[in-house]
Amino acid sequence: MSASFDIVSIDDLAKTIPDGAKIAIPADYAGVSMAATRALIRRRAQGLHIVGVPTSGLQAELLIGAGCVTTLESSALTLGEYGPAPRFTRAVREGTIRLVDATCPAIHAGLQASQKGTPFIPLRGILGSDVLKNHPDWKVIQNPFSDGDDPIVAIPAIRPDIALFHAPLADRDGNVWLGRKRELVNMAHASMTAFVTVDAISETSLFETEEKAAGVLPALYVGKVSLSPNGSWPLPFWNGAKGDDAHMRRYMEMAASDAGFNDYLERYVFSESAMA
Amino acid sequence: MSASFDIVSIDDLAKTIPDGAKIAIPADYAGVSMAATRALIRRRAQGLHIVGVPTSGLQAELLIGAGCVTTLESSALTLGEYGPAPRFTRAVREGTIRLVDATCPAIHAGLQASQKGTPFIPLRGILGSDVLKNHPDWKVIQNPFSDGDDPIVAIPAIRPDIALFHAPLADRDGNVWLGRKRELVNMAHASMTAFVTVDAISETSLFETEEKAAGVLPALYVGKVSLSPNGSWPLPFWNGAKGDDAHMRRYMEMAASDAGFNDYLERYVFSESAMA
Amino acid sequence: MTVADEKKALICLIAGLLRDCNHVAVGAASPIPGAAALLAKAAWGSPMHVNILGSVANNFFTGGGGELFDCAAQGRIDAFFLGGGQIDGSANINLMGRGDYPKSNPRWPGTFGSAYLYFLIPKVILFREEHSRRTLVEKVDFISAPGTSEEGIYRKGGPFGLITSKGYFRFDKNRKRFNLVSVHATNSLEDILDNTGFAFDYLENVPVTPDPDPQLLDLLDRQVKAKIAEVYPNFSNTIFTVTSPD
Amino acid sequence: MTVADEKKALICLIAGLLRDCNHVAVGAASPIPGAAALLAKAAWGSPMHVNILGSVANNFFTGGGGELFDCAAQGRIDAFFLGGGQIDGSANINLMGRGDYPKSNPRWPGTFGSAYLYFLIPKVILFREEHSRRTLVEKVDFISAPGTSEEGIYRKGGPFGLITSKGYFRFDKNRKRFNLVSVHATNSLEDILDNTGFAFDYLENVPVTPDPDPQLLDLLDRQVKAKIAEVYPNFSNTIFTVTSPD
After folding, report:
1. Nearest CA in chain A to D71
2. Binding partners of B (≥3 Cβ pairs within 8 A)
């Protein structure tokens, strides 16, 4: 709302994400800030608790490979057609990250509980699965509205410190346009604040038309914005860029070995700061 | 999705709302289908259970006055600056309707519970109020995630038969555009089906652009659409019409007495069918 | 002091109470609180965010009607206003009706979000212009939202104070009583004692509410008037002298 | 029969199972089920609604990533597809990994929404092309989602059947076992018995899966091809002969 909303560089944005932060990130199709991911690795972030909403992909894979992650809370980590995520697979096998494996609607419900400031939301299904058996936070309660035995899983609120994602547009007041990617709105409402990279800055208010306004995350929920055109690279972006298929294949080759992965970081992550 | 989606007349729409139906209706600022309200009165609907989301105004007032309502579940019934709603005030005083008085966020939470197919959502606040004491459905439970005493109100799902509202646009597939009035989306998701009156029909798909798509209720949730230009009259519409101030003042005068109210119905409701 | 001047003085008084807030939300049909929030933002840039429900231009919520309540529960709303047909000495408020519920007579609109927001917004300012034994009562007939809660009840917010056309009270959470801070210039302690249905704390030499800062009044006339007119056209006409357009 | 022909036959077989549905949702990266849903809609106008997650043109959800799950819980999704690295004879599925959790080796992506959708969608079709003792096991190492639940557990949906590259099984909820319905033309009962890690019911003279209806195949080539290409370009290239554009 104030015209003084600060638009920061990508490395400055990453610097204000503290070690140990609980960070909510979207699935690969919903607008991933890969630019911020690389900046986090450059600043050698430590101890992150990543919440994949409801899943993650290359973003968590890179952060895990670079040693930034202590806990991965997600319903899946997938690179889709490129096959098993090499760094994630290795970290799981060797037990170097803590896993909080969930199921998609429970991640959404946990964020909605936070959004509503309520301690939990009960959810159907899940009973009898080993996901429930191994989840450290969920509890089975009796449905208070049922006369008979009716167990139901209570999903406690997930309250991330930061929601981090990539969006098409922000305006000078700090409002962000994200179309019908409403999971990003829920992530932001549920988190203490949202850090957003954008393809472009709009010089006019995103509230100018009702059509545009329908897809806006208001500045109230936004902490930092960084202008990062094509900031989801090499992932595709729903509002523009196609995925960089050649780069993804290159990643899969390089990340197959520890040395190759380090080369990848050197070449595509650490040397990127020169461009910034 | 099928091009064969049926667009019906307002009286045909009202005919398919059965007596005794539980109908969710929006607050006066969010797009009220007054056209459907008048059609319901014309078909002499009986025994309706009205859910004001989260409040209601002229729509519930008219339906109550016309004897269509058995139960009013809402957080308020207000005509705003026009003062106390005469027919509602009378019905309460004489005990001719059943009141389920709630508080706004509990109406939203009850609909969200239905939307999530979960039996209830717990909600903070409310404890110690006489709203809680008198509400027939709410229960106080212990927060299962707290070690100490921590009572919290469990709001059971509210599942209306029909969500009924007015929107700017529908397309030939039955998709409806409602901008950032997302409470209408929630109402529709929570209800068995949605009946919608619209100002206009779009000959192109509302999914054609991402900007428009962000404000769409998909046809999957829509049961009936009726073309009713200015269908919120005499109430204002967020996407166009101003309220008809002169008519509202006239209503307040006429509805002050039983005879006057009957004249009002005769003149503005029953004779409207001639126009339809 | 004309009626318009009195209302302007109330706007300035309330604006001053919002200066330490980041985000103030104002319910529909609350022109004086709404004007105060817009004035504070114009004067001090603080609150930075003002949300006036029912407005299009001054409402930035995009999540539907439930967002206000979620936003409050998230701790993102610092101040809000509540009124009520009855307010009692324990800061309980009644928006439901007089007499025995459910056959209230008269019935008022209903509780709205008060039973929730009163628990969750840190600074809830009770605002009710009519100051009489009819509105300020010993005990409300129906508790739409309680002023205080027992130990152990989750409660992040509650009543900050009460502003009427006659005076300004602060609410003492520990003593669960109102304390008269000041009497408006057009009024007297005696008049307030006569017209208040509940007991409250006060000093015999209670101060007079200070006159509004002329600069603030000037800002209200010059910059805030147009915004108020957008949201509350009728109200704006009654408090601002109609001048020829220039 | 070429590999492309086999895949087309699977598409037609699955399409036939979706004809009684109003709304079919298909997860990301499920080209054969996705093609089948689009084909059924093209052939019979039923299912009327097809939602392919991850697609832009064929995904009509506007409520964010959670809408699929809410929609299922509302009873508005009639059929869905699940797979898994392991599927056992009780229709339990494992999407988590082989070996002892949490140190799975190999680890697969994770459970996604299966632990929820398996309970709520009436017709869940298990689809896994690889038919081997590695994938179809006696007992899964990790239950991402159980195939059946005890009496008294809220459950509106579950496994309808299992389709692999070798055959088509139905799941018998009461007996909690699979029943072999038919063997695909390119295969044999013996081969299926050799390559299935769990016990199942079958007739010695189990039928052969009928050849796909030529009209359906024709429709697939003519009308559905372009839609499939929009969602699954690589897959589309592998099953449709590349022809000169006309």
Report:
1. A105
2. A, C, D
pLDDT in tens, chain D (246 residues): 788 899 999 999 999 999 999 999 998 778 999 999 999 999 999 999 999 987 777 888 988 889 999 999 999 999 999 999 999 999 999 999 999 999 999 999 999 999 999 999 999 999 999 999 999 999 999 999 999 999 999 999 999 999 999 999 999 999 999 999 999 999 999 999 999 999 999 999 999 999 999 999 999 999 998 888 877 777 888 887 654 433
State how far the Cα of A203 lies from the Cα of A158, in Å rounded to an integer.
35
Q: Are D10 and D164 in contact (CB under 8 A)?
A: no
Between CA A39 and CA A67 the distance in angstroms is 14
Please state the separation of Cα A180 from the chain's center in Å.
Answer: 17
CA distance B144 to chain C (A): 14
Residue numbers of A between 213 and 252 with CB closer than 8 Å to C: 213-221
pTM above 0.90, yes or no: yes
Structure confidence by residue, pLDDT tens digits, A38-91: 999 999 999 999 999 999 999 999 999 999 999 999 999 999 889 999 999 999
**H or E element in which residue D51 lies:** strand D49-52
Note whether A220 contacts C72, CB cutoff 8 Å.
no
C72 touches C121 (CB < 8 A):
yes
Q: Which residues of chain C make contact with B125, given a CB cutoff of 8 A?
A: 115-120
- Domains, chain B, with CATH or none: 7-103+158-275 (3.40.1080.10), 120-156 (no CATH)
- Please check whether residue D80 lies inside any domain of the structure: yes
Number of domains, chain C: 1
Q: Which residues pair with A187 in a beta bridge?
A: none
* C193 assigned to some structural domain: yes
Q: Is B250 helix (H, G, I), strand (E, B) or coil?
A: helix
Is A120 in Cβ contact with B122 (below 8 Å)?
yes
Residue C105 falls within a domain, yes or no? yes
Give the count of alpha carbons within 13 A of D168, CB side only: 19
Taking CB atoms and an 8 Å limit, are B119 and A152 in contact across chains? yes
Q: How many other CB atoms are found less than 10 A from the CB of residue B183?
A: 26
Identify from A111, A114, A115, A116 which residue to disrupt to test chain B contact, counting B C-beta atoms within 10 A and taking the largest count.
Answer: A116
Residue C55 CB-half CA count within 13 A: 24
Q: Rounded to whole angstroms, how far apart are CA atoms B231 and D62? A: 25
Q: How far apart are CA B175 and CA B188, in angstroms?
A: 12
The range of the structural domain enclosing residue D80 comes to 3-239
- Identify the DSSP state of C30: -
Query: Is position D10 within any domain?
Result: yes
What amino acid occupies position B247?
H
Q: Coil, strand, or helix at residue B255?
A: coil
Structure token digits, residue C208: 């007079």
Per-residue pLDDT of B88-110, as tens digits, reads 999 999 999 999 999 999 999 99
B189 vs D contacts (CB less than 8 Å): 63, 67, 70-71, 74
Exposed, middle or buried: residue D42 (CB in 10 Å: 0-12, 13-18, 19+)? Answer: middle
CB contact under 8 A, C45 and A2: yes
| Residue carrying the six token digits 């039923």 | D46
Q: Is B15 exposed, middle or buried (0-12, 13-18, 19+ CB in 10 A)?
A: middle
CA of A53 vs chain D CAs: smallest distance (Å): 8
C-alpha closest to that of B56 among B29, B32, B77: B77
Helix (H/G/I), strand (E/B), else coil: A187? helix
Does A99 contact D102 at a Cβ distance shorter than 8 Å?
A: yes
Contact A216, A206 (CB under 8 A): yes
From its phi and psi, is residue A95 left (phi > 0), alpha (psi between -120 and 50) or beta? Answer: left
Nearest CA of chain C to the CA of B99: how many Å?
A: 7
Q: B153 is written with which tokens?
A: 């109100």
